[in-house]
Write a structure and sequence with these properties.
The protein has 763 residues and is α/β, with parallel strands linked by helices. The chain has 2 domains: 3-10 and 49-386, Alpha-Beta Barrel (TIM Barrel); 414-756, TIM Barrel (Alpha-Beta Barrel). The chain contains 27 helices and 21 strands. The strands form 5 sheets. It has an 8-stranded parallel β-sheet. β19 (665-669), α25 (674-683) and β20 (689-693) form a beta-alpha-beta unit. α11 (299-309) packs across α13 (350-366) and α17 (442-452) runs antiparallel to α18. It is globular and about 75 Å long.
Length: 763
């Protein structure tokens, strides 16, 4: 009999109970014992739901107090030296200190989990002596069995993936680190085997990327060693997000099961099985339900694929499962009451995906006729959405097709634009600015809630927003910033705000997903053709500009970020969606310019998040991503200064594409990995305006002037001082008022020190 499984479940809860518990604990409103009790109940509820839906192999140890990669590092006692830790189980104070920073120690670097919108905490191996602090998978297994009678499937990040995602060691030390870690993995697995665990899911998503021959050798060594040490344990080597790169080597590994992604890696994984077969002594984990998308599956198509696979793998050696963890989708669509019927009918979030997995497993075991009614219901729902008028706007499709055939260009090249912009703006050396948003206090959130509930009318709310702009324009002037922003108090989220004002978008009430830590976002759904309807940002920006003689930047989210941070339709390509967004946003850029706004920031923090994992697909993606940005910005005057903002640490592999975007100024989130980014500029020349984030806004700690001065000085070794800007890492929406003001004052003080030093004539 085929079995059913998923690779992980959302942590946050249908009403974000997990987020609320974390933030209550951090603020001191919950004692640690109360906090632990709340998280246990949340965790058990998630297991109960999977149990109720009939999932055979329920994952355990996929739940986290912050991040699963940080959990793995903590389990091995890999704690950065700057945090006070004397061994044993890692205290929550240290655990959260690594994630969020403390008064005395900076947080660890955070970066994206492969090509998803989830961000993990990067382990720091430098100086660490790994030991087992606690067997987290065993604890999770025991809890599920004792509390709910569930024979769980412990989940753990594999040794090679953990190492490749870590920092603080050289390539030559990789084997040394494997020798340190492998005995710890074996001890954990032995204890699981002694406990009677049947299946363990070891996640090795790194094998869907292009790894070296040495890493393939290491992979073989790892699993040969584990198999020899714990031969009785059923290990599912799990891959996801794409097709495996070294299929023949991976399927030859001495494990009992191999999990493959038959959604995002469908064509290559299926072709490999057809060409090379699949071992008769292994179980195939068929990742057939999309763990990252929100649309109902075409169950008929999925069944056809499963039937095709049974030509190579017997049905009793199949596990029907999600393509990846359901961490990346909202919990349930059940409570969504405000969506168009044809849209809601086509949605499947985590709970609904459990149903899909269970239905397909039932069909494999008992025949297609046992789910004939469900097959018809699914097809009817998908057909209704396909025929929706929102998906068939010929005016938009024709307009976008017309402009996308041309290569968008600014009138003058940057070298000439820079001169006319300098003449217009007369900015000092090292201009200071922020990324866009300022703290959204409880008062701001309450005002928005009152307005959304209808207790405030539009004018009351607009008046409140103007008052907030007044306060922060004055504060920015007092702090001494050169280029101001209006603060974005009217915006809940940098993508949601624009989606609410564009045609083709829909918004859930409860469709939250985890971005990092307790930061949850509610991605819009792009389900129809995107169209500009009216100006979205002009009113607030124009008002802020009327209150100051300093330039105020207009603030937009760029087309690629809106796309990458939304759930998108699947009936057209992502490139087509990007161009529709670019066409709509271009009209907003033009409206800002016509209103007298001469600096416009089009943020693209998520460009890299959409980069395909396969190297051969990356150039094409970057080409149309750059084109979409330029389509958005190319029609402005030469004196209009286009800014953009990006978030990531790995910069060197796409510097040419970033430069090709032709933004007059780019700001980059770098403070957690400043050294790595500066090294990129030591190897590559960047000829446009640039601001490297000089402090980390994800941490509540206030950085010292000296820290920022050191960052500035290192950057100036490799960047042109005449093109260098100074700014925080990212937007300040999630920070408090006092820490924000103090941090910005320190940033301006560091800037004045740098100006004094670099304005002096060289003798």
């Amino acid at each position: 009999m085929a079995k059913s499984s998923v690779l992980g479940y959302p942590r946050i809860g249908a009403d974000r109970e997990w987020k609320k518990a974390l933030e209550s604990f951090w603020s001191g409103k919950l004692e640690e014992s109360q906090f632990q009790d709340q998280l246990q109940e949340i965790r058990l509820n998630h297991l109960r739901k999977q149990q109720e839906k009939g999932i055979d192999l329920i994952p355990v140890n996929d739940f986290s107090y912050y991040d699963h990669v940080l959990d793995t590092a903590a389990m091995f006692g890999i704690i950065p030296k700057r945090f006070p830790y004397e061994g044993g189980v890692v205290p929550l104070s240290v655990y959260y200190g690594i994630a969020r920073g403390t008064k005395d120690a900076a947080a660890s670097e955070m970066t994206k989990w492969f090509n998803t919108n989830y961000h993990y905490i990067v382990p720091e191996l430098d100086g660490a002596v790994p030991v087992i602090t606690e067997n987290k998978p065993l604890i999770a297994y025991r809890e599920a069995k004792e509390k709910l009678g569930i024979e769980g499937k412990p989940v753990i990040i594999g040794p090679l993936t953990f190492l490749k995602l870590s920092k603080g060691y050289s390539a030559s030390e990789t084997d040394v680190w494997l020798e340190r870690l492998l005995p710890l993995y074996i001890q954990i697995l032995r204890e699981l085997a002694l406990e009677g665990v049947q299946w363990v899911q070891i996640d090795e998503p790194i094998v869907v990327t292009k790894i070296s021959a040495e890493d393939v050798r290491r992979l073989k060594t790892i699993y040969e060693t584990i198999s020899a040490a714990v031969p009785e344990l059923n290990i599912m080597l799990q891959t996801y997000f794409e097709s495996v790169e070294n299929y023949s080597e991976v399927i030859a590994l001495p494990v009992k099961g191999i999990g493959l992604d038959f959604v995002h890696g469908l064509s290559s994984n299926l072709a490999a099985i057809k060409q090379l077969g699949f071992p008769a002594d292994k179980v195939l984990g068929v990742g057939i339900i999309d763990g990252r998308g929100i649309w109902k599956a075409s169950l008929r198509d999925k069944l056809a694929l499963l039937e095709e696979l049974t030509g190579f793998v017997a049905s009793d050696r199949l596990i029907v499962q999600s393509s990846c963890s359901l961490l990346h989708v909202p919990v349930t669509s059940q409570n969504e009451s405000k969506l168009l019927p044809e849209l809601k009918g086509a949605l499947a979030f985590a709970v609904e995906k459990l149903d899909e997995v269970a239905l397909l497993t039932k069909a494999v075991n008992s025949g297609k006729t046992t789910i004939e009614n469900e097959l018809n219901e699914y097809e009817n729902a998908l057909q209704a959405l396909k025929q929706s008028s929102e998906r068939n706007r010929n005016d938009i499709q024709q307009a976008v097709a017309a402009i996308s055939v041309k290569q968008p260009e600014r009138h003058l090249p940057f070298s000439q634009r820079h001169l006319v912009q300098q003449d217009k703006w007369q900015l000092p050396l090292f201009p200071t600015t922020t990324i866009g948003s300022f703290p959204q206090s409880a008062e701001v959130r309450k005002a928005r809630q009152l307005w959304r509930k209808g207790e405030w009318n539009n004018e009351q709310y607009a008046s409140f927003i103007r008052d907030q702009i007044d306060i922060w324009v004055k504060l920015q002037e007092e702090i001494g910033l050169d280029v101001l922003v209006h603060g974005e108090f009217e915006r809940t989220d940098m993508v949601e705000f624009f989606g609410e004002k564009l045609a083709g978008f829909a918004f859930t009430q409860y469709g939250w997903v985890q971005s990092y830590g307790s930061r949850c976002v509610k991605p819009p759904i792009i389900f129809g053709d995107v169209a500009f309807e009216e100006a979205m940002t002009v009113e607030e920006t124009k008002y802020a500009q009327s209150k100051t003689n300093h330039p105020v930047k207009g603030m937009l989210t760029g087309p690629i970020t809106i796309m990458n941070w939304s759930f998108v339709r699947e009936d057209i390509t992502r490139e087509q969606i990007a161009y529709q967004l670019a066409y709509a946003l271009r009209q907003e850029v033009e409206a800002l310019e016509q209103a007298g706004i001469g600096m416009i920031q089009v943020d693209e923090p998520a460009v890299r998040e959409g980069l395909p994992l396969k190297e051969e697909e990356q150039a094409s993606y970057l080409a149309w991503a750059v084109k979409a940005f330029r389509m958005t910005t190319c029609t402005v005057q030469d004196t209009t200064q286009i800014h953009t903002h990006m978030c990531y640490c790995e910069f060197h592999d796409m510097i040419d594409s970033i430069e090709a975007m032709d933004a007059d100024v780019i700001s980059i989130e770098t403070s957690r990995s400043h050294g790595e980014l500066i090294h990129s500029f030591e190897l590559n020349t960047y000829k446009l305006g640039i601001g490297l984030g000089v402090y980390d806004i994800h941490s509540p700690r206030v950085p010292r002037v000296e820290e920022m001065t050191n960052m500035i000085e290192r950057a100036l070794r490799v960047l042109d001082p005449q093109l260098f800007w100074i700014n925080p890492d990212c937007g300040l929406k999630t920070r408090g008022l006092e820490e924000t003001v103090e941090s910005l004052r320190n940033m301006v003080e560091a800037t004045l020190i740098a100006r004094a030093k670099h304005s002096q004539p060289v003798s």
